[in-house]
Amino acid sequence: MKRILNFSAGPATLPVSVLEEASRGILEIEGSGMSILEVSHRGSHYEKIHFDARDRMLKLMGLSADEYTCLFLGGGASLQFAMLPMNYLAGGSADYVQTGEWPNKAMKEAKIFGKVNVSASSEDGKYSYIPKVFKWDPAAQYAHICTNNTIEGTAFSKLPDTGVVPLVADASSEMLSRAWDFSKFSMIYAGAQKNLGPAGVCVVVMKKSFLEKAREEVPAILSYKIHAKNDSLYNTPPAFAIYTLGLVLKWLDTQGGVKGIEEKNRRKAGFIYQAIDDLLDVYEPACREKEDRSLMNITWRLRTADADREKAFLKGAQDIGLDGLKGHRSVGGFRASVYNAFPEEGCAKLAQYLRDFAKQY
Amino acid sequence: MKRILNFSAGPATLPVSVLEEASRGILEIEGSGMSILEVSHRGSHYEKIHFDARDRMLKLMGLSADEYTCLFLGGGASLQFAMLPMNYLAGGSADYVQTGEWPNKAMKEAKIFGKVNVSASSEDGKYSYIPKVFKWDPAAQYAHICTNNTIEGTAFSKLPDTGVVPLVADASSEMLSRAWDFSKFSMIYAGAQKNLGPAGVCVVVMKKSFLEKAREEVPAILSYKIHAKNDSLYNTPPAFAIYTLGLVLKWLDTQGGVKGIEEKNRRKAGFIYQAIDDLLDVYEPACREKEDRSLMNITWRLRTADADREKAFLKGAQDIGLDGLKGHRSVGGFRASVYNAFPEEGCAKLAQYLRDFAKQY
């Protein structure tokens, strides 16, 4: 089992212990004589896995099952961009903070179902920072933010106060990587394939008082109320993705939970940002404010960029086992995605490479 | 690796060779230094898997990539119940054949988007048969059938002629189990977790001329046109489910393709139906017409049923390793789901148990 250092933005690195257990589960789960891929979603083997993952998720977030519910849905976080306004707008309005490409996609879907207020935007700076001043509409059904912007490498350093407007967040690229006060969210959702597990499942954590306000007149398969009422078993769930997510949550407990992993994540990102900050004549951070820097997706460019030099940087990285560092085409340059499971020594190795490359540059 | 005989309706038995290869892929895929769960969906490792699965699917169905497209979507077949009318109705109408619980769910979702004509129904017989006379409305956007009814154990023995109305089929519980002339379908879809792979992906095969008629004014994530234009890579696909589905399709080639597996499936179902037919004083088939019998889901009851006798039947079966034979609550009795990967000797063993149980009965 060869391992490279995989800086991919997602699907992304998972803990080796999780991969080993999932590999065994594919052959047989708990002496059942069946693979995890073969057990019925109505049977006791799967139900135990399903409810354990749900309970662990709420516990790791410090949320009570009396106040919050956790759903596991198929279709990816992109489906939530449409499901959320479908379940809440019906011609009403919602506030959106425009911080990059993914929020733009969410806003586009919302406009099909109602009015979108732009509460704040960093479009003027090509999404290189997080807005600090917001305008919330008390009549809005919810206020939507993207807590961490995967492509741009920016993140909210603190949550905005949305007043009476319920706060909804897409946290796909940073879920359970830092210790928010999660009770501030009326809803927080995340595609699993970055911090939580493999692609194929989206975690949706909802405050029950917010869930109650969802519309009933939507297709059953797209209704939060129907999925909540059926404990995410209305239809066959993406069972293997949920199983693996459960293994990742167990692993997270061994890392000191969300607080423990946040400390580690700050150290990991620190190695790389420090190298960039020490070499500002060579590298330029894509995120323009230090306080808005993402801990998960670190973006930078060569100060005097040309295609050949960028290629040389990537080739040199690849040669020493650093993979997936090419930045998203809309930002250019480089991106190191260092999610929860990405090893600390990999960050140190990239920092060293940044220094070595700068010397010969 | 202990193996039981798993008659579950889905998720269901997969070929052992597929499980073994998927188990290895979880550790590392093709010498990449990454798990199949970790590779980027935009990278070469995954793209090869993705397009190979798509091409194999069309080839196994005998369809040309010029005329048809194959999509891999998250959200399950249940999402198609809503996506299909959302993409085609907009207040228009569609024909539906009502043959059981799943078609009822599909019809319920369609009513949100337009008018549903019931072209034929077997509701009067508690869905114990397949209607033979249909009324198609030439103005309908499509005609929807469920080719095999998982719960009731019925199946179309031949496809209805829908004239000018495009034929759309939910084939979740029988996809690639028998050799239809697939070019009769304008669209055919199937949740993978019965015949094609693990839960988490739905295969949607569409005639391009039908795809062209889809509406544009739908959320991007729910648009057939957007998914087709992006080769099912508009958002992160359920990569592991698609990978495993690809392995199942490779295995199917070793079984003589769809024609080869159909022969085997007829032998397999034949063992069980023969035992029931030989013992009609003890067992009663739930499907009332022989020609409407499903090859995949075999349903029957005890002629003089009581809860204790049913329990005794299930307990005796469990004791010899026959698992998952309890019928769906809406039909009662028993159900043996014997999908493509279910072993022939398991069917022979159940047939023998049916005979043994009848003797002591």
Could you give a short description of this structure?
Chain A has 361 residues and is α/β, with parallel strands linked by helices. Chain A contains ten helices and 14 strands.
Helix and strand topology:
2 copies of one chain form a homodimer.
Chain A: E1 5-6, H1 16-27, H2 44-60, E2 68-73, H3 76-88, E3 93-98, H4 101-110, E4 115-121, E5 143-146, E6 148-149, E7 154-155, E8 167-170, E9 187-191, E10 202-207, H5 208-211, H6 224-229, H7 239-254, H8 257-278, E11 283-285, E12 297-302, H9 307-319, E13 322-323, E14 334-337, H10 344-360
Parallel strand pairs in A: 1-13, 3-4, 3-5, 5-8, 8-9
Antiparallel strand pairs in A: 2-10, 6-7, 9-10, 11-12, 12-14
Notable traits:
homodimer; 361 residues; alpha/beta; Aspartate Aminotransferase, domain 2; Aspartate Aminotransferase, domain 1; 2 domains; seven-stranded mixed β-sheet; three-stranded antiparallel β-sheet; 10 helices; 14 strands
